[in-house]
Amino acid sequence: MAEYDFDVLVIGSGPGGYVAAIRAAQLGLRTGCVESRETLGGTCLNVGCIPSKALLNASEKFYEAASGALAKHGVKLGSVELDLPAMMADKAKAVTGLTGGIEFLFKKNKVEWVKGLGTFVDAHTVQVGERKVTAKNIVIATGSSVTPLPGVEIDQKVVVDSTGAIALEKVPEHMVVIGGGVIGLELGSVWQRLGAKVTVVEFLDQLLPGMDGDVRKEAAKIFKKQGMEIKLSTKVTGVAVNSGKAIVTVEPAAGGAAETIEADAVLVSIGRRPNTDGLGLDAIGLATNQRGQIETDHSFRTKVDGVWAIGDVIPGPMLAHKAEDEGIAVAENIAGLTGIVNHDVIPSVVYTHPEIAGVGLTEEQAREKGEVKVGKFPMAGNSRAKAIDDTTGWVKVIADAKTDRVLGAWIITAPAGTMIAQVAQAMEFGATSEDIAYTCHAHPTHSEAIKEAAMGVLGKPIHV
Ligand code: FAD
Ligand code: NAI
Hints:
Layout: E1 6-11, H1 15-26, E2 31-35, H2 42-47, H3 49-66, H4 84-109, E3 112-115, E4 118-122, E5 125-128, E6 131-140, E7 144-146, E8 159-160, H5 162-165, E9 174-178, H6 182-193, E10 197-201, H7 213-225, E11 229-231, E12 234-242, E13 245-252, E14 259-263, E15 265-268, E16 272-274, E17 307-309, H8 320-334, E18 348-350, E19 355-360, H9 363-369, E20 372-378, H10 383-387, E21 394-400, E22 406-413, H11 416-428, H12 433-437, H13 448-458
Parallel strand pairs: 1-2, 1-6, 2-3, 6-17, 8-15, 9-10, 9-15, 10-11
Antiparallel strand pairs: 4-5, 5-6, 7-16, 12-13, 13-14, 18-19, 19-22, 20-21, 21-22
Helix pairs in contact: 1-4, 1-8, 3-4, 3-6
Cofactor: FAD
Pfam families: Pyr_redox_2, Pyr_redox_dim
InterPro entries: Class-I_Pyr_Nuc-Dis_Oxidored, FAD/NAD-bd_sf, FAD/NAD-binding_dom, FAD/NAD-linked_Rdtase_dimer_sf, Lipoamide_DH, Pyr_nuc-diS_OxRdtase, Pyr_nucl-diS_OxRdtase_dimer, Pyr_OxRdtase_I_AS
């Protein structure tokens, strides 16, 4: 009889955990995955990436139709009505299709779903309900949840987090978004397109912390132009709810006179924090760092032998694709192969309209490291963007001034999220801006703007 129930037991079935489990099983390891939700797929599939993208897509279609924006393309519509329950049902279908798909993949790969909440008993044993499950290797992939704002109670009716904001039953007249990060801008866009007035309150002096400085400035301009009210350098000091209305008190971040804003929905989106409560880390002597994260080495080993960790629960950007890549790598490392994730080349995308995407260093970070050359190409010079009359944005390529190696790229345009993969791949191959500039790009495509920005690094773009 085997010493352990499993070779690998993964705790959490988000993009980190389910991918780790499937890869481990593919590598011939007996694998189980503990998940306490009713469905597999974690935050991303159930209440994150997938439902938010379904709503972003549907709300954009509604906005295009209802605002008359299609008329310029010769598409004249009669009266357009919002059927919010149908839109929500469409979103739910996208979610169940994908979460069911993971269940199918588990069965296909013989990964056992151990249903329930997992708590460590020791480094090789996890208590799940009545059952003690043992494994030679345990991967912590418990993800993250919403960071609460002290003094602001989330009731998921008037004051919501992202989970409440993807399930509102009616379009609020006025939504106040606390936090001008990715969730605030994506879900703020959804409700604005459906008819809400949206006010974003951001503590810092710019939106989207962590992104390139030019991108952050441009983002504020773009969202203001779309009608969002954006209050930068402003903090929320309290939210009072009375008869379905919220009174949000704000004041300048540096201190000063307070003012109140009335709203019928308040979205709290000030970040997410790692899930380790109730996991029993004490039982295995594993401490978290100051940010509550579990530290690992490059192979995703924690300080405890046989215990590994990946995804949102460890340091790094809280992104599904980062978690997935770590899931593959950890399984390969457990199987004795070499699993590597290049954390310097993790793209990030904001799925608004236009999309905002970046990979590698910001211009500020690159300049701190040494001399750089920057090429920037406006979408107004891109023939495809012009042909479809959607020319907002630009592409910026940052390269090392001496070696010409590409250090980062930032893109604002409708398909930026898809385009950024090209630069990520180029960076993985150690490409120079010359390599990109002299690669033939199909015409007319948005991607030609990447080529032209790279030509800009060399000093010779054609279409500006
Ligand atoms: P999670 O997906 O959080 O999964 C962890 C799972 O572990 C959960 O299902 C949880 O129930 C389970 N769990 C936790 N503790 C236990 C326990 N003790 N026992 C059993 N089970 C447990 N990222 C992107 O890259 N692109 C996007 O477009 C995007 N959109 C997002 C939109 C929203 C609204 C939100 C909230 C997030 C979004 N993200 C996006 C972030 C993305 O969802 C996370 O980075 C990703 O889900 C992290 O994966 P993970 O596997 O580490 O953890
Ligand atoms: P975030 O970190 O992106 O943004 C939070 C914002 O809130 C920051 O701008 C911060 O300065 C601000 N803030 C913090 N405290 C505040 C306060 N008291 N008052 C006002 N503003 C305050 O976090 P967000 O948007 O909650 O998203 C959480 C995570 O989910 C992100 O790390 C992101 O990576 C991930 N995510 C990714 C998506 C994508 O890849 N498209 C989509 C949605 C979420």
